[in-house]
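@channel sequence for tomorrow's demo:
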Amino acid sequence: MPSGGDPKALGQLLRSRRERLQPADVGLPPGSRRRTAGLRREEVALLASLSTTYYTFLEQGRPVRPSAQVLDALAAALRMSAAERRYLEVLAHGPDGAGATVPDEAPAEVLAPAVADLVQRLDPDPALVKGRRWDVLAANPAARELFTDWTAQPPGQRNLVRWMLLSSRAREVYLEWESEARAMLGRFRLAAARYPADPGFQDLISGLHRDSAQVRDWWPRHDVAAMGSGAKKLCHPRLGPVEYTHAVLQVADQPEQTLVSYALAQPAG
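structure tokens (generated this afternoon):
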């Protein structure tokens, strides 16, 4: 399909964010006889300086193409994060803005030998490279010991999101599994929005819905998150509970490929 946005998903996002806010959150009086969850449509329209009719069309998923200024106003009115604002843009205008296109099927990914070599040289610190669909393209021995040996999996199952949501091993490794899994799914969703018609993404998302009750529960909420460095509490098979810091780096020649490197911080408390 042309990359002209996804009006239906845009409407779902707006409604979900509207229903999460209360009048007090945005400086409005509570009012009376409130029969809907969260804010009313007319309240969002007022906060974004839009007509109620225009906002209603957006939330109903009609083929309206809001300007960047309108999206900024909606993001501010609905208290969206930077990642949610980017997601709003993708749903409104497509992956690369108005008039731009991306292929229906993304080309096969190739990992540069120099990047694969760097991953190995980072050992004994765990390191891996994930691709646009979060397939694990390379992982050094330390990463395979800490997480799982993706090379032992069939090629179609060497996927970080699939492993996180469907593997019992992931629940053992991540000491804060639910929050980490939700955050990973949110980051993946933001990446997937760039390829709305890609069969690989569609198959992966369909499989996750089929096999994971958590995905069936979380996906309709349209939660998204940005990638970034930080710290994680993990359970190492030899060291036990430990805290790792991690850094996330984009591969310059393939910006949809990211290298994630972990460094031992301290025993997890």
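heads up for whoever presents: The first helix runs from residue 7 to 20.
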